[in-house]
Amino acid sequence: MAVDIQKLFNEELPATLSNNADAAKQIGATFQINVTGDGGGEWFINTKDEVKAEAGNPGGADCVITISAEDFQKFYENPGANGMQLFFAGKLKITGNQMLAMKLQKLFDLKK
């Protein structure tokens, strides 16, 4: 089942973060997610001090992830296994602290 990327980042993830702020703060990092292609966009996710997810790219994220909308579908289904495959295939680009990318699964698990 395809995930609606716009709905995920604009509605579902912000609601999940506000409902699970303490759990989100344990991740303790800022992420910039850039999804290219149809249905994509740019979102800034803060799990450090002010827990929130919002559209835009203010800069200064600890971990920046760039991925196509098509590949994001695979990544979202299984961030651990598919994330590694996409990364090594050059389809998932990570700048900044690459270890933080592994914590994205925890972020998505809060929602599930």
From TrEMBL:
Signal peptide: none annotated. Residues 18-109 form the SCP2 domain. GO terms for cellular component: cytosol. InterPro entries: SCP2_sterol-bd_dom (IPR003033), SCP2_sterol-bd_dom_sf (IPR036527). Pfam families: SCP2. This is SCP2 domain-containing protein.
